[in-house]
Structures are given as C-alpha cells and as structure tokens.
Amino acid sequence: MTFEKNGEPLLRVEHLTKEFPVESGVFGRRANAKRVHAVEDISFDIYPGETFGLVGESGCGKSTTGRTIMRLHNPTSGKVIFDGKDVAKMKKRELKEMRRNMQYIFQDPQASLNPRMTIGEIVSEPLIIHNVMPDAKKRMDYVRELLDTVGLNPEHINRYPHEFSGGQRQRVGIARAFALHPKLIICDEPVSALDVSIQAQVLNLLSDLQKQFGTAYLFIAHDLSVVQHISDRVAVMYLGHLMEYSDWKTLYDTPYHPYTQSLLSAVPIPDPDVQRSRKRIILRGDPPSPIDPPTGCPFHTRCPIAKDVCSKDVPELREVAPGHFCACHFAEPNPIKTSSVDLGTK
Amino acid sequence: MTEKKDMYEKNKQVSAEAPNQQEEELDSSAPTRTLWGDAWNRLRKNKLAIIAIVWIIFMVILALSADLWVPQTLGKPNAQIYDVRLPMSAKHPFGTDQLGRDVLSRVIYGARISLAVGVLATAISTVIGLVMGAIAAYYGGIWDTIIMRLADIFLAFPYTLFVIAMLAVIGPGIQNVFIAIGILGWPSIARVFRSAILTVKENDYVDAARSMGASDLRIITRHIFPNSVASIVVYATMNIGGAILTESALSYLGMGVVPPDPSWGSLIEAGQTYLSTEPWLMIMPGLAILTTVLAFTLLGDGLRDALDVKMKDA
Fold first, then answer.
1. Which ipTM was obtained for this model?
2. What tens digit of pLDDT does each residue of A308-331 get?
3. pTM of the model
4. Do A104 and B29 touch (CB under 8 A)?
5. Could you state, in order of their start, the residue ranges of all structural domains in chain A?
C-alpha cells in the first residue's frame, strides 16, 4: 500500500531547528552558553490523510520535533507551515484556532489525563475550550458517542482515569484528540507504554479512526515494527537530524542510509532460521551527546563506511530514488535480507 | 475532502440513533460527578472531620449570637470584692476573673475576634499567596526571581516583629491587625503553592490542555489548582491557628484588641499571673484556642483526604 499524494501538503516543516540552553547564570543567559541541539535543520511534509512515521532511538529529538510542531516549544529557527500558515509566528488567537485542527496524543496515558477530572470532563474539554457545543446535554451525548467509538463503555463517563487500565486510558486520550475532528494528530509514542497485545488493539483503533475521519498522523515511535504497521511514509532520525525518508515499503526493503540499514538489521524476525543466519550490522559505541554534536555528518563517528569527507561536510538530504530521500555522501541501496537465508558472517 | 465529509455525516447519523438504544442504561448511571461534590461525599464519611466541622460551626454560632443571650452584666467588671476570682460554679461555669467578670462570657465574646482574625487573616494571606505563587511558578523566569526574592525578604524578618512594625505604621486597632497578619503571611503560602505547581506543571496533562488551546487561566484553575490544592488546604487550616496565636501576642503587647474587649489571647495573658492559684483564668480560654485550632487542623486533614480522588468509596 503506497499513499497517493493529493494536492497541497497539510503540514510543511522547513529547516526546523530547536536548541535548549543547558546553563543559565544569575544574570541571564550567556551568549556562548552550551546548548542541547535537539532538532537540527529538519524538513518534511505531511499530506492530508496520510500517516508519517518518525523513528529513532531515545533522545534523538523525535518528541521535541512533535512538540515544536504543536508549539509546546518555540522553535529556534525554521518554519512549520500548517494549513498555509506559519505556526512559529502565530499569535495567541491564531494558535488557538490552529490547535482546533491539530491535536496531540501523549506517550504516557497515566500522565496525560488530569487525575481530578472524570473522563467525561476530559473528553469534553476541547469542545468547551473551542465552544463547539455550548449545550451541555448535547455535549455529553456527543462525548458518550465518542467513548463508544473508541471502544469504551459510555456509562463510564463519570469515572476517573485511575479507575481504568493503561489501554483504556490511552483510548480516552484518543477520544479527546478526535473530539474536534482535527486534520492532523501528532501521536507521540502512543503505544510504547502499553502491553504488546494492547498495542495492536490501539494501533488498529487509530487506523480505523483515520479511515473514518480522514485525519493525518505524525506517528512518533522507536519501534520499527509498530511504525511499519501504521505508516504510509517513514522517516528515520538520528541525533536531531533527518537521515532518510521514503514510503515505508521502499525504506524497509531497500534502505540507503547505513544507519537505517543497521536499525533494520536489528529488528528481530520471528523465524529462528532466518534470525540466526542473517547478517547483522553492529554499531560500536553510543550516540554522541547532542550538547556537543560531531562536525559533519552526525553519524560519522559510528558509521561503517565513513570517509574523511563525512567529518567535514554535513550531507544534504538528496533524492536517491523517486520520493526516497537520504542524507549520506555514500548512500547505496542495501537490501536487507529478511526472508532468504544469508550465511554471511558477523 | 468530500469523502471525509460524507464519512462525518454518516457517523453523525449512526451515532444519532445510538443514544436511543442506550437511553435506559445511561439514565441508570449516576448524575454527573464533580470534584467538589465527590469530595463532600468522602468528607461526610470522615467522623473526625465532621466533629471538627460541627465544633467550628458551634463556635461561630456561639460567637455571632452572643449578644442575644449572654447577660451583658456578666461580662462587666464587678466592684464587689467577694466576686473577684471565684472558682467554677453553676452561676459562673468558668469562674470569674480578677475584676469579677464572668470568664465564660468573656471567652464567648473573645471567640468573635479570635475566629475572625484566624479566618480573615488567613484568607488574605492565602489569596495573595496563591496569586503570587501561581505567577512565580507558572510564568517562571524573571517573575519567579522577583516574587521569590521578595518572599525571602519578607521571611528574613522575625514575623511578630514585622507585624508590630507594620502596625506601628498603619496604626493599632483590630482591623489593622487583620490586615497586618494577613498581608505578612503570604510568603510561606506562596512558597508552598509555588512548589506544588512546579510539580504539577511538569505533568503531560498540562501540556495536553495547552495543545488543546486552553487559556492560561483555564490551565491554572482547572488543571493546576485542583491538583495542588491539597497542600494549600492543609497549610491554610494550620495557618488559622497560627494567626489566632499571633493576635494573642499582639493583644498582650497592646497592639491588638483594646481592653476591655476580650480575645482569647488577651484572656490568657491576663490570666497567667494567677496560674498557680486560679488556673481556670488561663486554662479556659486556652482550651478554647486548643479545641478550635485542633478542629481546623482536623478539618484540613479531612479535606486533604477528601480531595484525593484516588481514595475509595466516592
């Protein structure tokens, strides 16, 4: 299944950069204070109704990207153009209007629901804020409906979040995100806090709702198989940089970037013969600190094919195949053997 | 785009029918619960808290209705020497003081000033403290620095001395005692509330509210306040006792109530001279302070538990 791009992108992220200061003195910040380079010059776009997966290891800036798009953080530089307007420059009123069309699902359903509000109050809150349904009775009926849609018992409308299981709580978070029928929902690792069996249910719910409402997702995750399950296109992040993106099938079948290749080679395959015999790319060391990132390509310190140029020049994202972008000086397609037996040594 | 609309319409139709099927089930569910309604339900089950509430209401009624039934003459000085410092009796349940006045009447009238100081001064401190704490914690940065350093300056002065200094500026009198104790009490409440907010603010549900487009006021009142109110409720009820005691110290120093008006504090100060011979002069108003402060503290404890939604038996 490949996604057909139709018309204008819903969200265009252009050269987005987000840095956090790590030190601040008594008399304000020093000009040369150290900064965490959480997101470095990333660009991508999301079309209406598509699911754009964003993967990477912990601390690579995935969540910061999502939060900056939502403007829970102010971007250091770059543009986030949503529905034709730059989110980074919006005034309060415009921002509120924008948030009607862009919602967020959080990783930890325990922390993202106010423990002192009933789930009815939680789900109806976006409706109250945007004054969509002024009539209280109608609103509660609609909330019951929504709870039913996400697979919760509408009778539980007066219960508190702690009376639910993790999967149910995440469904409440999903109902809240869908209450206003937004055009884009940023899903920040929505299933990584859940059991594997519940993960599948919640993922299926998300894709059902997408079909029903035509919502676009920015789906952030660290689990490649989860992303594969739901995404139309997938982007790989490393140390704040976008390394590679393409539609999921191309990316999983013929990854160009050595980092993507090593990531995919680490995905366990539920077939012992294949699993035992396939070639794994083992990376040495840990990712460098985002406070003091390496010069040139952020990956050159661990890259198996790095040459001199990699430590000097930052590779541009270039189109290596139609719709397939990769940021590497020496990128070559390297189909990872997933089904055939490959007796390569480690 | 049109397809999406169709989906939406379809969904609307489907869901429009759904409530009818479920009407009966839905009606059987409890009426809409609110945080404060639930809290009251839990509070009712807490015996100690109910006793405390009853006691506080009793004291308030006693103080308010005193003019109606306490014989005025009992509170007046009695020149006859044999009526002075009488022990407890049926006629004078708490005995009489060094001027022959009925101590029970004095304690009941004293409740007016002491309760008013406790509640009003705490209310003033709490309101100022809440606003200051909320601004400091929520907006942070320069606001945090300014407000918290200001609080440090306030706290650096000995409290009673600071109140006396303020009274020296604005003049003595009972209204000014309310104001002085109230205004000078804000820094500690601001600190407690600030730290409570800083903890709550980090939670995802605050970000969730922001990402929904909620205003700052809504986030503070609907999300941050209900989750940090417990510590404030406890602190404020304790503060009532402190305010009552501060007022007694001021009265003793002649900065508070003007004799012959009684307050519990001034009664204790007046009675302490006779502690070894006529202890009731001090013990009776002391008991009034003790039981009332205890009642407020127990009420605070009860409220803290009642406001915790995770407690069972809602």
1. 0.81
2. 888 888 888 888 888 889 988 887
3. 0.75
4. no
5. 257-346
